[in-house]
Amino acid sequence: MRFEVEVAPMDLDLTLGCGQTFRWRRNTNGLWSGVLGDQFISLKQNGPRIVGEAAPGGRCVGESVLELLRAQDDIGRIQRTLRRDPVLALGMKRMKGLRIVKLDEWECLISYVLATYANIPRIMKMVDALAVNYGQRIARGAHAFPDRRRLSKSTTKELTKLGLGYRAGYIKELCELVDDQTLHSLSAAPYENLRRELIELPGVGEKVADCVSLFGFGRLESFPIDLWIERALARLYKKKGSYRALRAFAARRFGEYAGYAQEYLYHNERMHAREQECAFSEE
DNA sequence: GCCCAGGAGTGTG
DNA sequence: CACACTCATGGG
């Protein structure tokens, strides 16, 4: 079933490829494929339109894609707000098509617990291993991300063997602790409460809680600070310090759209490290 | 082989 | 509060 949605501004390669999400792959033709719910989906950008394809009978797939890509975000307004920061104002326009994604809460929580102290290729491999081994098989040999019930069937030993390392125990504990009711109630919680409750979960510290708040629960004021963001803040703002201090700095400086500022800085810093085109520079 | 990775947990000063 | 150490492993 073919569908078409409009999202503007939009850069599909940046949005799906910058390391926010771990289950979307791009082939050499620029076709992205991934899974939303129990649907295997292919996406291709055609200017302001996203042309997609899903298995026959897939319902509301277009809506799922609009949600994933946060089509309702007013990027113009967000960038006008962030432009008050002179560093971001410098090159933010070039990243207009980079959007924060909205992931499934459970998948996001598990994914970012796996993401601790691992690089992105490895995270993709771990998440994929969970899907292949415990997720429901769907179209074209693809697998849905396993829900709590399915993932509970795993053992710590199996998970370790799949390459999760010390993260295996956290995943087992999360299966016991986090049910749909928990996620539902967290969805309705104010950001600070959500963050506090996430941090109480095993394997979830401040950084993971901020990622899950941002990408899983859609809280745009969240500002996850990983090694790249630490470097960006030190290089571009001469700002160093504890997580708490950096977080307070970001909240003051970037306000309600700190999440977008974070994603711009994160992407920019990685490009800078690769000595590729980067928009923000200290000079 | 070496260094690094979208860190967290625990213990100590 | 700030450090220091451990955890387990694949990717570049």
Annotation keywords:
alpha+beta; 5 strands; 283 residues; DNA-binding; 5-stranded antiparallel β-sheet; single chain; globular
Notes on the protein architecture:
With 283 residues, the protein is of the alpha+beta class. 51% of the residues lie in helices and 9% in strands. The protein has helices spanning 12-17, 61-68, 75-82, 86-91, 105-114, 120-134, 148-151, 156-164, 167-177, 180-188, 191-199, 206-216, 227-237, 243-254, 258-273; strands at 2-6, 25-26, 32-36, 39-46, 49-54. Strands 1-5-4-3-2 form a 5-stranded antiparallel beta sheet. A hairpin with a 2-residue loop joins strand 4 and strand 5. Helix 13 (227-237) packs across helix 15. The longest helix has 16 residues, at 258-273. The chain is globular, with a radius of gyration of 19 Å. The termini are far apart. The mean pLDDT is 96. The protein binds a DNA duplex (13 and 12 nucleotides) through helix 6, helix 8, helix 9, helix 12 and helix 13.
Roughly what fraction of the amino acids lie in strands? Answer: 5-15%
How many β-strand runs? Answer: 5
What are the secondary-structure elements, in order, as H or E? Answer: EHEEEEHHHHHHHHHHHHHH
Low-confidence stretches: none
Q: Class by helix and strand content?
A: alpha+beta
Based on Cα principal axes, name the global outline.
globular
Instruction: Describe the largest sheet.
Output: 5 strands, antiparallel
Helical content band: 40-55%
Counting DSSP H or I runs of 4 or more residues, the number of helices is 15
Mean pLDDT: 96
What is the rounded Rg? 19 Å
Tell me the strand order in the biggest sheet: 1-5-4-3-2
Distance between the termini: 50 Å
Oligomerization status of the protein chains: single chain
